[in-house]
Amino acid sequence: MTRPYNFSAGPAAIPSEVLEQAAAEMLDWHGSGMGVMEMSHRGKEFLSIYEKAEADLRELLAVPSHFKILFMQGGGLAENAIVPLNLSRAGVVDFVVTGSWSQKSQKEARKYASEVNIVATAEETGFTTVPDPASWTVSRGASYLHLCSNETIHGTEFHQLPDLKALGSDAPLVIDFSSHVASRPVDWSRVGLAFGGAQKNLGPAGLTLVIVREDLLGHALPTCPSAFDYKIVADNQSMYNTPPTWGIYIAGLTFQWLKRQTEGGLTGIAAMEQRNIAKATLLYNAIDQSQLYVNKVAANCRSRMNIPFFLRDESRNDAFLAGAKERGLLQLKGHKSVGGMRASIYNAMPLAGVQALVDYMREFEQKHA
Questions:
Q1: Phi, psi (5° rounding) for residue 70?
Q2: 17-258 architecture in CATH?
Q3: CATH 3.90.1150.10 intervals, the chain
Q4: I want to staple 84 with a disulfide (CB 3.0 to 4.6 A). Which of 28, 109, 162, 189 is the partner?
């Protein structure tokens, strides 16, 4: 039986192969007599799960050896506080505001930094664009510059990370890559720290991924809780407190699934990027060629992961969603702050799912023309 296609923005779809393996191992992981949720996080069984997950992720994302991989808790919202607690040094921090998530981030950082400088914002366009880095006004001596590299709600994405040195800034770049992590390669030469909640593209809610350059460790404010001090977490291999063991396990299975993916002779993340480009192109073309649907985001910064669209006749929204649900096309309602529709087409969404959505959209338009 084919499962419905889940377009939720997060918690989001997990690959069926991963869920099936987790189900098979639920009561007894590899003959240990325990399920993963029952294991001690310091026991040899779970440590083997953790070590493989970390190694697979480092390989998949080509994370350099001078970066630490931390498995934490609290989600992206908590990182909005944990990042400035660790990196701000109570000084000036720069922000690029491109949507709801970076708005939340800069507001939270004001509690810990002496000054938050908005170097650029897309608010005047309704967050339908990404400001050209050439127009940014960066601070001298900023502790870091923060941006959300993929805005889940407004559907914008930095298709190339900025080179801060070219802008005259020595600040490390901090990226919230929650909603497009593992969908494309990361240029680590331009990044100081990347963080993201796992529940969009890597696994279940409850696990937060932080990848941080080693030289940025050890500068936490005195008020930073020990469990959130990146250096303490790194020194304890993410085991300072009990980590989200189930989340790490499912993410680890997802990493293994990603390593098995192939596309046009490519493997892993490179294969996923090509697949994600194909999925996004299919859906955007259907929207752009339609008389009923519209996407308002500028073409050069459209997200491959989160595609918001609107019916020009919004009186038909409820009928559209009801029909979609009947077809097994789930969670298409847009975020409450912007309305409309949104299709999140993360790695676990197959091309067939996007094709099914496009077919339904065309049939609905013909019926209601």
A1: -115, 135
A2: 3-Layer(aba) Sandwich (3.40)
A3: 263-367
A4: 109
Q: Name the residue among 57, 81, 83 with its Cα closest to residue 68.
A: 57
Which residue, 136, 90, 130, is CA-closest to 109?
Answer: 90
**What would the two tokens of residue 277 be?**
């480009």
Residue 330's beta-bridge partner residues?
6
3-state secondary structure of 340: coil
Mention every residue, 6+ apart, whose C-beta is less than 8 A from residue 309. 287, 293, 294, 295, 340, 341, 342, 343
What pLDDT, on a 0 to 100 scale, did the predictor assign at position 1?
Answer: 53
263-367 CATH fold = Aspartate Aminotransferase, domain 1 (3.90.1150)
Q: How far apart are CA 315 and CA 295, in angstroms?
A: 17
Catalytically active residues are 101, 176, 200
Strands (E), 168-278: 173-176, 193-197, 208-213, 262-263, 266-267
- The stretches in the chain having pLDDT less than 70 are 1
pTM over 0.90: yes
Structure tokens at 327: 């077809």
Maximum Cα–Cα distance for the chain, whole Å? 62
Structure confidence at residue 265 (pLDDT): 95
Q: What pLDDT, on the 0 to 100 scale, is given for residue 2?
A: 78
Helix 245-260 vs helix 268-288: angle between axes, to the nearest 10 degrees?
80
- Dihedral (CA of 84, 201, 157, 213) sign: positive
Residues of the chain with CATH 3.40.640.10: 17-258
Nearest to 173 by CA among 183, 188, 157: 188
The sign of the torsion formed by the CA atoms of 81, 83, 84, 85 equals positive
Contact 184, 175 (CB under 8 A): no
Q: Residue 115's beta-bridge partner residues?
A: 92
Distance CA 229, CA 232 (A): 5
> CA 148, 152, 156, 160 torsion: positive or negative?
positive
Report whether 257 contacts 15 (CB < 8 A).
yes
Could you tell me the CA-to-CA distances from 163 to 84, 156, 190 in Å, in that order?
21, 19, 6
